[in-house]
Write a structure and sequence with these properties.
Bound molecules: adenosine-5'-triphosphate, magnesium ion
Strand order of the largest sheet: 2-5-8-1-9
Order of helices and strands: HEHEHEEHEHEEEHHEHEHHEHHHHHH
Number of domains: 3
Structural class: alpha/beta
Number of helices: 16
Shape: elongated
Radius of gyration: 28 Å
Distance between the termini: 59 Å
CATH superfamily of the largest domain: P-loop containing nucleotide triphosphate hydrolases
Length: about 350
């Protein structure tokens, strides 16, 4: 892959066919200066892809200016985009530079373009056609050199039919369309994202959750993720913060997820995991793609080994109903060594 997938501004994760197609389009479109329109459900990564397009272009050293057309009240959006002259309207005490001018020689990212009011759509059309803007209340037009990237989660073709979006503007914007598939259509990315966010939040929250059980991973992979990657990231944060264990299991998953996934897909795994010895679990985990491995901050080897040792001893005692001779045989120890360890570890039966 010829593009930078990771910078201080974004970190793009994914290996599914769906996301690789997107990366390929980013690679080919980034440096073209052509207008790109990103479509995809909420939380699929439209803004991240917009940043990747910018940072993989010649405009990289200049500004990436995002404007959320849906979040700014309509009456403010015009001056936000085009700026205004002093005295242009009541309250315009000073001349203000708009985002279009700020994005000069850089990239303007118009998010939720479907929410742009009709009156502004006409003005945007003029910028696209003539590379000129008029500040509100301004005299002469100002030349700008802006690369446009737009994004929408709604269907603009439908908005055109409904008379809410100008068809001529749509054709101007729809030069290079990039559709980002929802997460449920690229399930193979889920383990990668889960591991990425597990590591990330472990670090950020100072926790040391080292692993996630097969059953929990299976459930996360089967869930539909209506809020896509944003929802997954928020889930991982919650699980990392709330979990008191070193391993995330289905018990740590919220009801919303559990009730969405059919029981048949995960119940056998939970059963199998319940019957596993810690040794089996660790051995198996090591062979897994989602074995997290050594946490960033390291481990306390002595303490971890002791915990593991203790779990195995308790298990051996449980299996043998507390008969120390037999437990010692299961563990390959002399009886006296076992008794010493029990004393030292404060295990009472
Ligand atoms: N490929 C990816 N790898 C890692 N993280 C990602 C990826 N795509 C998106 N994210 C993360 O998911 C979250 C949502 O991404 P982003 O804001 O780009 O989505 P969006 O499509 O613009 O969503 P919305 O429509 O809600 O604005 C962010 O926290 C982002 O970092
Ligand atoms: Mg967004």
């Amino acid at each position: 892959m010829g593009i930078k997938l990771q910078t201080e501004f974004y970190n793009l994760i994914g290996q599914s066919d769906g996301i690789l197609k997107v990366f390929d389009l980013v690679e080919r479109a980034a440096d073209s200066d052509s207008t790109v329109i990103l479509t995809g459900e909420s939380g699929t990564g439209k803004e991240l892809i917009a940043r990747a397009l910018h940072h993989n272009s010649q405009r990289d050293s200049r500004g990436f200016i995002p404007v959320n057309c849906g979040a700014i009240p309509h009456e403010l959006l015009e001056s936000e985009l085009f700026g205004h002259e002093k005295g242009a309207f009541t309250g315009a005490m000073q001349t203000r530079i708009g985002r279009m001018e700020l994005a000069d020689n850089g990239t303007l990212f118009l998010d939720e373009i479907g929410d742009m009011p009709m009156t502004l759509q006409v003005k945007l059309l003029r910028v696209l056609a003539e590379s000129e803007i008029d500040r509100v209340g301004g005299g002469k037009p100002i030349k700008v050199n802006v690369r446009f990237i737009t994004a929408t989660h709604c269907n603009l073709e439908q908005a055109i039919k409904d008379g809410k979006f100008r068809e001529d503007l749509f054709y101007r914007l729809n030069v290079i369309p990039i559709a980002i598939p929802p997460l449920r259509e690229r399930k193979s990315d889920i383990p990668l994202l889960v591991n990425h966010y597990l590591k990330h939040f472990n670090q950020e929250k100072g926790k040391s959750i080292t692993n996630i059980s097969d059953a929990a991973m299976e459930i996360l992979c089967s869930y539909q993720w209506p809020g896509n990657i944003r929802e997954l990231a928020n889930f991982m944060e919650r699980m990392v913060v709330l979990s008191t264990d070193k391993i995330l299991t289905p018990r740590d998953l919220p009801d919303k997820v559990m009730s969405d996934v059919p029981k048949e897909t995960w119940e056998p795994l939970v059963q199998a995991e319940a019957n596993e010895t810690p040794a089996e679990f660790i051995r198996k985990s090591r062979n897994h793609a989602h074995y997290i491995g050594m946490p960033e901050e390291g481990v306390n080897l002595k303490q971890m080994v002791e915990e593991f040792e203790k779990e195995l001893i308790i298990e051996a005692l449980e299996k043998t109903n507390g008969v120390k001779n037999q437990a010692a045989i299961l563990l390959g120890l002399n009886r006296t060594t076992l008794v010493e360890k029990l004393k030292k570890m404060n295990i009472q039966r």
